[in-house]
Records
---
Amino acid sequence: MVAFIVRRVIAAVLMLAVVSAATFAIFFLIPRALGQTPEGMASRYVGRDATPEAIQGAVKRLHLDDPLIVQYGRFAKGIVAGEDYSLGPRKAECPAPCFGYSFNNNQPVWPTLLDRLPATMSLAAGAAILWLIAGVSIGIVSALRRGTALDRAAMTVALAGVSLPIYFTGLVSLSVFAYTLGIFPGGGTYTSISENPIAWFQALVLPWITLAFLYAALYARLTRAGMLETMGEDYIRTARAKGLKESTVVTKHALRATLTPILTIFGLDVGLLLGGAVLTESTFSIPGVGKLVIDAIRGNDLPVVLGVTMFAAFFIVLANLIVDILYAVVDPRVRLS
Amino acid sequence: MTTAPGSSAPDSFLELRDLRIHFPTEDGVVKSVDGLSFKLDRGKTLGIVGESGSGKSVTSLGILGLHKGGRAKISGEIWLDGEELVGASVDHVRTLRGKKMAMIFQDPLSSMHPYYTVGAQIIEAYRIHHKVSKQVARKHAIDMLGRVGIPQPDKRVDSYPHEFSGGMRQRAMIAMALSCDPELLIADEPTTALDVTVQAQILDLMLDLQREFNSALIVITHDLGVVAELSDDILVMYGGRCVEYGSAEDIFYRPEHPYTWGLLGSMPRLDREPTERLMPIKGSPPSLINVPTGCAFNPRCAYEGRTGGKATTEVPQLAETEGGHLVRCHMPPAERRAIWENEIKPMLEST
């Protein structure tokens, strides 16, 4: 088991290295390959009407005229050990993990990201709890009551849930519950939990429900399908043949096998959301990582986009790692391979 | 659904009377079992033989009551040790399941839960019917694993099913089925998923254990070799019905149904000349929704022309031919015996 975990951690680190190389390639190698000069790259760092001297200064400061492999080495080193951009009298130290400075406000990217993380985490965690409980229980009940009116109603709602985009359900819920009925505050009212827990909660109720609705619908369908498949397994027949009560057959034998694959998907989904729930954050104007990256893309803020990309990839790799290890705990067959 | 008036508890340990298990589907009613009757005593073994879809497995699950509460329509009577089970409550049959009657399934890998250790699954089976501590049940599980011939049972009890070999897994499955000393044991294709070398070991083991426990044993298989090894009596099923029933000698030395001849002719044998061909049964098993009219076997029967046209119009009755040997065929007994002696037997026998 320890060897298994060590192997998985090493694989995860390697995965991140590959992701960093791919990210670097997208942002630096491909533009150069398409004919962009170091000066052209540098001009994005110094503003619209920069003098040739200023551009040359940026090329030197950012080492954009180095061979690309050296540039990647510096990029990777910046993430692991930090980077020192000081040249001459101007000092700019960027501690690890360094993704450079935002074009827009000249702030280092990493602290900006950390600033935005609590909002994204609040959104993802709350929604995840909601959708896991709702989706899985609806899926189980639907599978056990297969073909009944209850099953059909649940699956119709679930189909709507997976089909309707968040910017639709989000706007409708805002319009009805916030602006017409006034039960919840509208968009853009996010407050941090340390500042005002009650306001934090109130502002997040609608985003939670909106985001959870989509995922709960997905999970209900997955759970139902998994449960139906499991209930047809030979070992369920064996459990019944032993004389087990049907309730025990469901809870002890069927659920465990059904929930294991769900667990995998859940880990990956949460990992994905921690890298920014772009649509939900935009719809409700929550200052999270997803909102940050959307604003950065609109403003051509390359370092921020790059930072968020690596950041999101990190969460997905981390989620993968955790899921793999949990899976080995749950399913003894995994430990072998 | 309820016990027919006037019916009474039989002398036999297990008796099925006109058991019917039908599944309504959108395409029509699937008559998986359609009027099956037989008797079985303690210490005896009945082999049920037939192709896939002949109703063998549905019958065994039906005896265990595993179709109860589902979509299946069940009628007839199942008497187990003086108790009628078709009319009994779901909950009551459940308490008998695993204790009074137990089952061994075909594929021991898929029939055991992959996430629980073999020991945990035996302990669970034992503790459903015995209110004992986990430690006591664990001792019993180790004891059972030892009895079915698993080496180092005190270590293997904590292994997972996938860590066992196929034969060991089936032994573990048998240990699980026998953990509560069932009086009726049903083995559904117990050796089909196993290597040939292991098959004989498992069959031996089952015979030994049956003698030890004096239980009634039903072996369901499509492999006549398996039933030849184990059975006192053999029941040949076709299209949800019994087409021939008799002692093992009756079926192997004096078979009278063309379908049984076909099964015997489909059995590869080493003592046959390599130049001789198998005599497979043509066609495929009948649809259980649209069972052929008349004799269900008529579309595949080589002797259909010798029934005077009754094959396609009239359902043959299961009639006694001699000393408890029952055959469901329109041909007169003398003609059937003549065909067996003069046409089939010489072809099956080696030079």
Note: Chain B has a mean pLDDT of 88.
---
Amino acid sequence: MDLSVLLTFLIFGLPLIGFPFVIGIGYIKKNYSMYLGTSLIFLSFLISVYVFFTYTVKGIAILYNFNWLPSLPAVIPVGVYADNLSMIMALMVSFVGFLIILFSVGYMKEDPNRHVFFGEMVLFTSSMLGLVLASSLIMLFIFWELVGLCSYLLIGFWYYKPNAASAAKKAFIVTRVGDVFFIAGIGAAILYSSGGALSVAGLSSIHLVWQKTIVSLLLFGGAIGKSAQFPLHVWIPDAMEGPTTVSALIHAATMVTAGVYLIARTYSLFTPTSLTVVLYVGAFTIILSGLIGIVVNDIKRILAYSTISQIGYMVAALGLGLGATSIGLSIYQLEAHAFFKALLFLSAGSILHAILNVRDINKMGGLWKKMPITVTSMFIGALALSGFPLTAGFFSKDVIISTSYGVSILAWILLAIGGFLTALYSFRMFFRVALGKPRSNPAEHAHESSTIMLIPILILAVFSLIFGVFQGGFYTFLGGSPVSLSTMDIVPVVLMLGGMGLAYFAWGRNSTIPEKVANGARDFYLLVKNKFFIDAFFTNVIAERGILGLSAVSDGFERKAIEGLVDASGKLFQNSGKVLRKFQTGLARQYALIILIGLILALVLLRIFILTGVIH
Amino acid sequence: MTILGNYDYLWNVFILFIGAFVVLFTSLVTEKRAVLVTMGAAFAVVSLMLTFAQYYGGVPIGGTLIFLTGYSKLFFIAILIPGLLSLIGILRSPSSAKPGLMIFIFLVSLGFMLLAISSFNLLFIFVAFEGVSIPTYVLAAYGKSESELEAAIKYFIIGAFSTGLIIFGISLYYIATGTLQLGAVPNFHSIYFLSMGLLIFGLGFKLAIFPLHGWAIDTYTGTSNSISSYLSTSSKIMTLIVLLNVLFTSPLFFSYLKIIFAIIAILTMTFGNVVAISQNNVKRMLAYSSIAQAGYLSVVFLVAGTGAINLALISLFMYALAYGFMKGGSFLALDSLGNYDIENFSGMWKRNPAYAVSFAILLLSLAGFPGTLGFIGKYFLFLSVLSTKTALAFLVVIISVINSVASFYYYGRVIMYMFWRKGTEEKVPNNYILYASALFTVLLGVLYFVVFSYAQSILPAITTFLSGGL
């Protein structure tokens, strides 16, 4: 094993080994956990940077496998695979992870359980890193599930709040639905490639188109669950409600990108049929969540729906089916989104920290004067999110919109409307937060947050502004062709400016337009306000009618049939134990007698075998 | 460096004998337990290190008396490690006034164990075997209480009885084959099988397989913890390997005797588990579980004469290693407590968390919980048996797995008492042997492929001298 492999293992191995120590050291002194956790993630980031510049930039892909279960006839490879795609992801995850954990040092400094929180954060980051560096689908799946576990733990971190506990359960169960597809996809891939597809590199051994379609659609099902696309998007908004802002963020910026990464990693399997499904699921999700984003009032939920719609762009970009260019477009959007969404979440967190966790944007207002740095950063984030020219979002998202024009007009229309909606909801949120007069008591007493919380915000703001300069190089780095600006780019910009202007007229000043619109299209407003009844459908119809009924039936069976059987066999064991104990008299002569009887029996048996010749 | 020719390969044994005398003479000067145990342990460690460092590439010693291969090396290690643990355990128990003599006897028997497993001559095996038996009779009697004496007397009576069987078996073996060397082709088949039956029952008593188990319960329960641990780990592994040598080299063994072993293995594990369920004394429970474990270990005889021998030996090594850590560790753990009733374990989590966690790890490993070395050993052992693909093998493995599941009941009961029952608040002193055993059980359980590939690198590709029945 040479140095590069060892280093790649260390990127995720270091925090993975370190996380029990992070929790353990917290029992000595809580603050040590914070320092240890932060430095572990920072070390991971440094190693990623080193590996990136020493190997990846020079075009060296690191691949190392060892056999997980040497005794089995099938080879189950486990190891690392670090090519351009993985290393870009690893850099992003470790960098954003580091900034988030740095922010948490300020944000969580008064929580009594913060050592556990930091331990979970470290485990989360390491699983995410393991996921992107995994060399086989099995290993990817293991880390995928670890990420799911951590997200369950982090969402439910304030478990004494009923919202948080139920949101954690919801996230866990909903993503599990996707995981069933994922594991079926792995199974199908192994089946169709006669075992070759256990490693990521072996996926190319699936040749038939229908087999590829089946495998890719199943894997996409997994991605839908983790990346919160329609119809499995319902867990993210709830996940934002209970937990800390910080953990909300790591979901928005890192965890949900796992699904996108999965598609990009297995991109060679996606056939035109499955790509069409991917494209329209993405486009549909953009519109759906964009509309809901305009009517919700909870600042974190707005960001959650915005996350869903931005991931919709990544998925749609992959669905365009332009090979490596698609991957480039999608991953570039992923990285840019990680920066500006992290920025928005951290600014939101900073605001909530200042106004005592009042999350309703109707109760904010006038915060620009109270917290100039935070809200200015939020402004930058909103600009980048809606794709204002020369910000990160412009280079990442608008390119996707204009590229889609060449693939499908319908997709282009949907994506462009999505851009308009994005500008509308992001500036609605921003104007309600920043302008006007404070609309509640806490908002009047808001003050700027501490420096340690502002540092990550400022770093992210800078990145959100200048990230666009990497665009050209980024696409070619991932093997795609560079995309140049064209006249088509004017359309999304115009739509975006329109959305921004509309938002100002509707929410930036005192106005009755929103009410009038809501009353005018009452039915449609209620439909959107109720999130298109998707959540209600899942809860009321599938969960309560379907699954609870089913489980009642199997519970009855289990109680009556199986438990009786188990009880009976338990009694049998206990009673025969009591009988057999009687032979243990403690008399040595009796033991010798038993030995003798046993010996004679054995010899007689042996003699019978030999005479009859039954066994040869 | 050559001093004694091929005998140089036996320095790991000689160092134990030398150590025994050094400790004995030191005890004339001082009877301080700590000093003597440290010296004894130091010699055992040196012996272990010599074993690790030495390369055994099929060395014949004393004509055909001893034959050393990588196979011997593996089980030297599997015997020395639990021996070392038990030796350190003497620090706490028993409360005898003369630890010097005790360690002398201990080291001598340890040395003979190594000789016993490396020999392929029945007379030599007999001598070495008695060289183990007689010191262990004394060790079992060491201490002051009546229970220790009773334990030793029972052990001694059954031992003497078995010696008779062995001697009789050896004489018949000589009549049948005309030699005392193992692996000879018999001229008289009926007498040969009679002798094999006698040898199995004579040698097998130390393994405590089913009809030969009676003494084991009383002896393991009665003697001091370090000796219980020694008798149920090192001594048992030694017996298993001696039996393996006798039977695997036999050209006629497998067509008939395999089924007897299948029956013995099934009866042994089922008996051990079933009776262990209704025990309330933890030490007695461990004694019964040690019988059940002997049943799992003897499953290995089913691979004899097939291509699975190599995998089976590697897995047996892993299981023996695990067995040494978990059984030795759990017996020695009892030293921290005055009373072995299960009630006395309640509230352990509050009284000494490290103790509770480590003891729970060892119990889970004994039950075969994934992530521990006990699971890995069992898993590979059963896998190797399954790979022979006979109906008998499937039957035995299925019953073993059912037994493993049933054993969760009585191991889990102790864990439940330790973590969820409220009991006395009395503090429990730390037991570092327990912690070390638990650590190794988990560490090697996770990094099992390291152990696996180490064993693989030592064991020659085909252990030809063991495939008599092929």
Note: The mean pLDDT of chain A is 80.
